Amino acid sequence: MGLCHACNAGASEGSYTVQGEQMQALARCSGPDGQALSGRLASIVSPMRETVWARELAGHPDKALVEELLRGIKSGFRVGYDKSRAPLKAHHRNMQSATEHREVVTKYLTAEIEAGRVVLAGTTSQAEALDVHCSPFGVIPKKSKPGKFRLILNLSAPEGASVNDGISKELATLSYVSLYQVADTAARLGRGSLLAKMDIKQAYRQVSVHPQDRRLLGMRWEDKVYVDTTLPFGLGQTLNGGGSLTQTGMALDC
What we know:
By secondary structure, the chain is of the alpha+beta class. The chain contains 8 helices and 9 strands.
């Protein structure tokens, strides 16, 4: 099964397939109340280029899926939260790992702000005026990189009133390319064919979230509130399994 990778398009790790109906359903999700955030909070920061993806996907049979993907690349992807499923309740107390590694958190936020992926919303009162919803976060060490940590935004807290509680499980359904499919493709292509695996650095962080949904991704730290503008670790039940629905579009079966 060949993969269509556009240059500098931020293709995610592995290969996934997703149905166009799912992407359309995702676009219809109600999201938070109010207008989309503006200014710095609404900037689209991503290496993905809409024109390149449009060219590479011109021959893809699922036109509805391609349309939704291109719209997401241009304007940001919806996270799939539906307020009718779970009204939100703020949870400001961060995990113990965050307080134990304060320098790690500060360094992470500084780097992400410089990269344009995290934006300072202001003080707690200023963030409340923007209706920013905050979730707790913590840090975990990276297994393969001693001394390096990953920040996890716990969008499943509090239970029953979290962002993830408002996301339908059906919207995050993935279908991985199996070893049998790889073997079948190799056999079909014949002798001399080559197999390559792409591992994109910080793949999730290359995918912009739609400004309408960024209110859902608030983080409170040292009396200030920050907003994530790209996909955070901790969003959706499938995140730890290889990617949310929006990222399934980053590696298409062409």
